[in-house]
Write a structure and sequence with these properties.
Blueprint (H helix, E strand, L loop, with lengths): L1 E6 L5 H10 L6 E5 L12 H5 L11 H12 L4 E7 L4 E9 L4 E6 L6 H4 L4 E6 L2 H16 L3 H20 L8 E4 L8 H27 L1
Parallel strand pairs: 1-5, 1-6, 2-5, 6-7
Antiparallel strand pairs: 3-4
Helix pairs in contact: 5-6
């Protein structure tokens, strides 16, 4: 089962995902972030790179992301890229990701890209007020990515907001569940937790039946 968690920049996707993972058995769940699949700068289309547009679908290696999701579905390991946001390039190292029965897929653009969206069995969209998302992004990029307030605001106005309006906001129509991210008291979180726990319970029952069959 693949659960997609989408929403605009700094809408609260990661916080929502973290709260999910805190309430379910992590042995059954793997977390896949679309953000770490950004292309290296030399591989981003020139017209996007010139204006530092990292919010267009073509700035991400969607082919590799889809391939990795499919490999995990086939119960095989992947070597996931590690992206360095301070220099806009991937690191030489990779991260080993092992398959688990439930995959949480998180990203700004995952519902705007049909190849990813169509893999999701459940689609959750986190909707958060624009001013709150902007303030969160400014704080994050300054403290975590070494950016200046001026550069963050310029990027937001030049590319982030237009791409949100063009790709992200319209993709909300594909969501099975829309949750407010204006605070961390996510109404609807219990529903997804219940769904995941039910899937885990079914997997345990199936595994127990298989063990009995093998013994007999």
């Amino acid at each position: 089962m693949i659960i997609g968690i989408c929403g605009g920049t700094s809408s609260g996707k990661t916080t929502f995902t973290r709260k999910l993972l805190e309430r379910v058995n992590p042995e059954y769940v793997v977390h896949m972030e679309h953000d770490v699949y950004y292309r290296n700068k030399q591989d981003i289309p020139k017209n996007l790179l010139e204006i530092r547009n990292f919010d267009h679908p073509e700035s991400l290696d969607n082919e590799l992301f889809v391939k990795h999701l499919q490999i995990l579905q086939e119960n095989q390991n992947i070597e996931q890229p590690i992206y360095d946001f301070t220099c806009d390039n991937r690191k030489k190292e990779t991260k080993l990701i092992m398959p688990k029965p439930i995959i949480l897929v998180e990203g700004v653009l995952i519902f705007a890209i049909d190849r990813i969206r169509n893999l999701c069995n459940i689609k959750v969209y986190i909707e958060t007020a624009d001013d709150l998302r902007l303030s969160r992004r400014v704080i994050r990029d300054i403290h975590e990515r070494g950016r200046t307030p001026e550069s963050v605001m310029n990027q937001y106005l030049t590319t982030v907001r237009p791409m949100h309006n063009q790709f992200v906001a319209p993709s909300k129509q594909y969501a099975d569940l829309i949750i407010s991210g204006n605070n961390e008291n996510y109404v609807g979180l219990d529903l997804i937790v219940t769904k995941i726990n039910a899937q885990i319970k079914n997997l345990k029952i199936l595994a127990r039946k298989n063990r009995i069959l093998k013994r007999n």
